[in-house]
Design a protein that fits this description.
Layout lengths: L5 H9 L47 H4 L8 H7 L4 H7 L5 E6 L5 E7 L6 E5 L18 H7 L3 E6 L16 H4 L4 H20 L4 E6 L1 H12 L7 E7 L11 H6 L6 H8 L9 H10 L13 H6 L11 H6 L7 H10 L12 H8 L15 E6 L8 H10 L3 E6 L9 H4 L3 H14 L2
Length: 443
Amino acid sequence: MLIISPLLVFLVLGTAVPSAWSKLHFKFRGLPYFDSLPVLKSRHHSMALCCNSPAPRQVIDPMISQRQPLYFTETDIEVDAKLSTVELILKYGFPAETHYVDTTDGYKLCMHRIPRQGARPVLLVHGLMSSSASWVQLGPNSGLAYLLYLKGYDVWMLNTRGNIYSRDHVNRNLPDSQYWDFSYHEIGTYDLPASVDAIIDKTGQQQIQYIGHSQGSTAFFVMCSERAEYAKKVSLMQSLSPTVYLRENRSPVLKFLGLFRGGFTMLIQLLGGFQVSLHTPLIQQFNKHICSLSESTSRICAIFEYIICGFNWHGFNQTLVPIIVGHSSQGASAKQILHYAQQQGQMAFQRYDYGGVLNLLRYKSLLPPLYNLSLAQSNVHLYYGAGDWLGSSKDASQLQNFLPNCIGNTKIASDSFSHFDFTISMDVRTLVYDQVINQCERY
């Protein structure tokens, strides 16, 4: 049985600043929803693909706009926590499609779509351990996918390899040690290019817009470095918590994992296997040090991604805990976590570090190659929060300095705004999404 020294945990936590977890301060506020339609269980939907006819900049569907916002009931919350992304979209009266794309290294990816014929496509890419549900889970009044659709966009949501919607591989007999042998490097090198090509092929558009949260941002910059031709296919990239440079990382878990450089076997044990376990020992070891006694009974404190990235109790509606829990921990490889752990405290944005000998075999160099951010020629707008353990202002500014076409670097107007507030804050629409949509209209 693996035992983590309490002294080591104490030392690591002593260097962290978990201020976002300090006090319980719930705000109870009604969140809007639209009258429910019958839920369709099938993942296959017969919808017309987009044509190439022009579309107005802002289009509001009469059938949807006539539905007056009401409020989530307890029943709605419990039901929505159990619905898939497509079922959520259909429940609130929006069209939905499911598309599949194969990567060149054999992974079969699922993309969810809220289609609008002839409109400009926008690709939304979720963060670590999340899924396409992160863009729709808070309903039509706060979910970015809905808001973009209502503004006249053709909305695509990728599920990156390894999450619950993208588990298949062309080789069904691939052992776990090989299937889960990927980090955000492979997502940027294989998943994103395949998805961009599929969208362009389906819509006939020459370019798309891209919005990424957390790892969805990291992988984009990997794509531009490793597959530079794809930067020209993205007219605008908006990065919600860039998570590229982590020199000022404040995550206790990443600081702890960063101590085990080269100890891959032990790290795999800590994370519960090649796939991150929902019951990794790190949750039990760290949540009691991060969650106060008054918060310790919340199911949020048992979710690994929040243990890693922090949680802003000040901006969260406690009544929505079942929805957040139901769409959390959607799948990730241990190597994804370890790659981020390697980045913390470093000045470099680089490929996975296998250690000197293996680096020589793989890279012909003792050190991993750096990603070339000068190849990210797309227009890029960065957004960061002061309460984000993985996104300080200095790290965002460093990224801005390396990007050739950074058109903005915006601090969210809330001192406690944390990593996952970009998708679950009760104020995310006014603090973030209104700005994001305004930027979309300019490109």
